[in-house]
Amino acid sequence: MTTATISAVQTGHVGLNVTDLDRAVPFYARVFGFQVQAEGGNDERRWTFLGRDGRLVLTLWQQSETPFPASSAGLHHLSFQVGSIDEVRAAEAVLRELGAEFRYDGVVPHGEGMSSGGIFFTDPDGIRLEIYAPSGAETAAAPSGEAPTCGFF
Question: Do 30 and 40 meet the contact criterion of CB atoms below 8 Å apart?
Fold first, then answer.
């Protein structure tokens, strides 16, 4: 069996289908501080490229008619790492103002005894998202015990 020879790999950007760009773009801009880098399309299919500091992070494609079905194969969740647990809590406050649905109440660790952790929530189309920090969550109880917290929402 042949294996590709790739010297380094990192995620470029993530593309998500949404039902309503006019609702999705302000959500992602307010929660993550993304700016619109480009946009276009027509009445049937519209798109917006979002990023920070000149780097493309997320592309939104208005080409869905129904919310994300978590029971279907495909994306499990999209995770964003931030620098500190205080930034996680600041995002949580914004999400609460926006009426986002949370899987757990507040910041939780990724597993029992771990210091990394964050918040787990859905966007307006039901896409599961996570914002986490590498440390600072060790004071909370892990909702899934030793199992990965991010795997069960």
Answer: no
Instruction: Please answer whether residues 57 and 50 qualify as being in contact, where contact means their C-beta atoms are separated by less than 8 angstroms.
Output: yes
Place of tokens 């760009």: 21
Q: Where are the beta strands (DSSP E) in the chain?
A: 14-18, 35-41, 46-52, 55-62, 78-81, 108-109, 117-122, 128-133
State yes or no: pLDDT of 152 exceeds 80.
no
Show the tokens assigned to 136.
Answer: 């600072």
pLDDT at residue 36 in the model: 98
The span from the CA of 94 to the CA of 31, in Å, is 6
| pLDDT for res 24 | 97
Q: What is the phi/psi pair of residue 101, to 5°?
A: -90, 130
CA separation for the pair 73, 75 (Å, rounded): 7
* pLDDT over 90 (residue 73): no
* pTM recorded for the entire structure: 0.91
